[in-house]
Amino acid sequence: MKFDLSYAHAHRRRSPLPAASVLLWLAVAALSTCVSYAFADAADPFSGDARLGVKRSFKAREQPIRDLLADLNLQTGIRFFADPSVADDRVTLIYHDKPPSEALRAVAALFNFEWRREGGPKDYSYTLFQSGASIAAEAAAREKRARDVVELVRQEISAFELLDALPDPQIEPRAKKAAIDLADTKLDFGRRRAASLEASILDQLKARNEWRRILNLILKTMSAEQLLAIMQSARTDFSWPPAPGMREIPIDAVREIREMRPKDENNSEVSEVNFLRVNLIGEVGRNPELRWHLTVGRRTANTYSSSEFSGALPSIPLETVRPDLEAANEDASWGDPALETKVTWARVGQVPDERSPKWQNRTRRLSLGDVLYGLDGAAALNVVADAFYSTKLSGFSVDRDTVGHALNDISRQIGHRWRKAGGFIIIRSTALESDRWAEPPATLVSSWVERLDSGGLELDDFSQIASLRDPQLATLTQMASRGDFPERLDSVNQAKEHLRVWNALTRPQKRKAENEGIAYTDLAPPQQALVSNAITDRRSYSVESYISSQLLKSCHFRVEIRSGTVWGVRKKSGSSIMGGANSREEAMQQLQRSDPRVKPGDLKTVVFTTVRFVYESNRGLLSQSWLQLPGRWEEAQQ
User: Fold this and answer.
1) Are 260 and 271 in contact (CB under 8 A)?
2) CA 270 to CA 211: how far, in whole Å?
């Protein structure tokens, strides 16, 4: 707003107010006007923009918000932006003959995001972002799920201690009673959970699993807050004797474990515990759990050995039905003719992947977006839905039933809930805060897929994948196993800790690691912690079972990268690789013998790379691990 002060100056002598007062009054008026505009924008950032009132139609299936807004920009000419906090969230949006402002409000309502307006009245721009309050609410929801798991784990620790004290003759009858209780269909949720927990513990006791007794002795020393902190951290390591980068196992627990005698008198190994290591990883997802890996070292008069055990707590799943979210809408509350339209539609199993390159017939699993597109073809919908990679859907069918009932069925199948708001159907995960936490960034996933389609991933790409949060990596691995990501990630999970070390190095450090190597003491503390994790990783080949602080400080880390080239062709019918050919011409002849249709232009080179991570000390080799990268396709050199 522009103010003309000439009136105040011209009438200064006749004004009963001094000039300073006039200026103050004008400043207050200007501030009041700005504040009123600000409140108007906060209430509805789209008010006063006629461009957003023009009715349009739009469809986008499982697009990152960044790309969806770019498409809306092209359609409307209005500048839309996605804040980094929301840019990678994927969404399905469909609407017909609707003002874009209604669709934009629905997208924000889906995720509990907000819009911010900037610029002047003739050229407003809009940015979608997640407020601090929304971020805090998601964190609080994840913390509540973590606390629920911690409470159940602590119940199991206490129950195990009580049941472990039972004489052997009482265990079998107690297990039979728990089984009878579970068979009672009238049992309420609390009693059913207690019976299920007891049955699981008794099964462990009948199996005489001494490792479970050891784990219980360690975990019972931890408070609820300590267990919560572990649930919320990526990885927490405990060790006895003390080891660098690891927390010390309480000495009281160690004393009980070393003095513990197995119930099987023929097995005396447990009394000879020489060292302990416990790795704990919290998984706060749709099915949260505390994953653990226990290493028990023993020394006898003549030999030294270690045993490893893995599992997850609680032994029974946390109830996934959220009591604060009721079932999907019933017919009486629909009030929309489209929802009452009867439709028939079905898809089962894998569907063709429209992103497949010309040389590959790729498929993917059916998605919620596919279902909504199918229903929209039968009855025009105005709908917005999340599009998480982790949403599992094997198939869906509806036969001469209403769209509303179809939405009920699909929502229950995938753990979602739908509602109507502002003329839109909004379909949202009942565990959205956990699903968002486990989503690999859509932009990175797209870039990796593009690189795979054009040739393949390199070491830096795989190290970037390995450095995702564990829930994100688990989602991407699941995608790869069901065809939603065109590369198997078994090797990444096998060498995850070593790839994370590589990803944490700077470019100069990487060059040094490939040549003379890097001393542990020359690394930053976060990098040192990653090296410690890698050396002690159970999937590595370790010479030393116990790494002392002194030994770790003398550690030297280096990486050996070796590549070899072969020739091959790849088509929709499959790939053929000639690994034994000594020249391009020889490879071409061999390929044409098996398939005369192969042309010289089809021939490409395939680069296979082997990576060896080596950790050495002044005493020699400490640990090492190998990684075979999948073949990377390149244009063949003439």
Assistant:
1) yes
2) 9
CA dihedral (474, 479, 480, 486) positive or negative: negative
Distance from C-alpha of 299 to C-alpha of 305, rounded to nearest angstrom = 6
What is the separation of C-alpha 388 from the centre of its chain, rounded to a whole number of angstroms? 10
DSSP 8-state code for residue 360? -
Q: Quick one: which of 607, 575, 617, 611 has its CA closest to 594? A: 575
Inter-residue contact 249 to 238 (CB < 8 Å): yes
CA distances from 445 to 326, 473, 482, 604 (A): 34, 11, 15, 25
What are the DSSP calls for 471-533, one per residue? HHHHHHHHHHHTTSSSS--HHHHHTHHHHHHHHHS-HHHHHHHHTT-EEGGGS-HHHHHHHHH
The tens digit of pLDDT for each residue in 104-128 reads 999 999 999 999 999 988 889 999 9
**Size (the chain), residues:** 638
Task: Measure CA of the first residue to CA of the last residue in the chain; give whole Å.
Answer: 68
Q: Which of 232, 73, 91 is nearest to 150 (CA)?
A: 232
**Structure token pair of residue 632:** 């990377």
What sign results for the dihedral spanned by CA atoms 41, 43, 49, 52?
positive
Q: Indicate the DSSP class of residue 600.
A: G
State pTM to two decimals: 0.82
Residue 248 has φ and ψ, to the nearest 5°, of -85, 135
Q: Which of 11-15, 259-263, 586-590, 615-619 has the lowest mean pLDDT?
A: 11-15
CB count within 10 Å of CB 321 equals 9
- CA proximity to 143, closest of 437, 392, 429, 387: 437
Three-state secondary structure of 260-291: CCCCCCCCCHHHHEEEEEEEEEEECCCCCEEE
Q: Write the pLDDT tens digit of every residue in 173-188.
A: 999 888 888 888 777 8
CA atoms within 13 A on the CB side of 263: 18
Q: Which residue has the tokens 């416990």?
A: 278
Residue 44 in tokens: 């509805």
Closest listed residue to residue 150, CA positions, set 223, 202, 233 = 223
**299 Cβ contact partners less than 8 Å away, ≥ 6 residues apart:** 272, 274
109, 421 in Cβ contact below 8 A?
Answer: yes
